[in-house]
Write a structure and sequence with these properties.
- This protein has helices spanning 6-12, 18-23, 101-105, 120-124, 142-161, and strands at residues 40-45, 48-58, 61-69, 75-79, 86-89, 92-98, 109-115.
- The protein has 162 residues and is an alpha+beta fold.
- It has one domain (6-161).
Length: 162
């Protein structure tokens, strides 16, 4: 992923109003992010940790999604639906996003299980590990795992827009 600015991020959200996008707490460490190793920028609002955001590129255009982390009881082991990393306890969270358009205005949302720390890109590239080791021994290459992560993420974003 190429580096992005706060303005790029604010204009990318597909399921937030302009006012909501203006109030998003943008990470202050954008310059230090490992952009070459990221398939998406993901972060939590430090003032409201249940608010989560993901921004990625789709066909050369930034697309951002505002999510909510569901409070819940930690499971023994959970698996991220984007990168297929397993985590103990609360390492995976159900994250939901309001749909766009009429469905979103009616309150419809979609959800999926995502790494709570939003470090999917780093797990797939073996730059970060979970307490369990976290990655299944797969027969596909890291490049194929990265492509799968991107497909899973873009599929989730498409479900926000449908």
């Amino acid at each position: 992923m190429k580096s992005v600015t706060a303005d790029d991020i604010r204009t990318s959200f597909i399921n937030a109003s302009k006012g909501e996008a203006e109030r998003v707490a943008i990470p202050r460490d954008l310059a230090e992010r490992p952009w070459g190793d990221l398939d998406f920028l993901g972060w939590r609002d430090p003032g409201a940790p249940q608010r989560t955001y993901i921004v990625t590129e789709r066909d050369g255009v930034l697309v951002g999604v505002a999510l909510r982390s569901a409070p819940g009881t930690p499971s023994r082991v959970g698996m991220c639906s984007l990168c297929l990393t397993t985590h103990p306890g609360d390492g995976v969270s159900l994250m939901t996003a309001h749909k766009t358009g009429d469905a979103g205005r009616k309150g419809d949302s979609v959800g999926t299980a995502i790494c709570t720390d939003l470090a999917c890109s780093l797990y797939v590239r073996h730059r970060k590990r979970t307490m369990l080791g976290g990655r299944l021994n797969e027969t596909i290459s890291v490049d194929e795992q990265i492509r799968r992560l991107r497909r899973n993420l873009l599929s989730f974003i498409a479900s926000v827009q449908s």
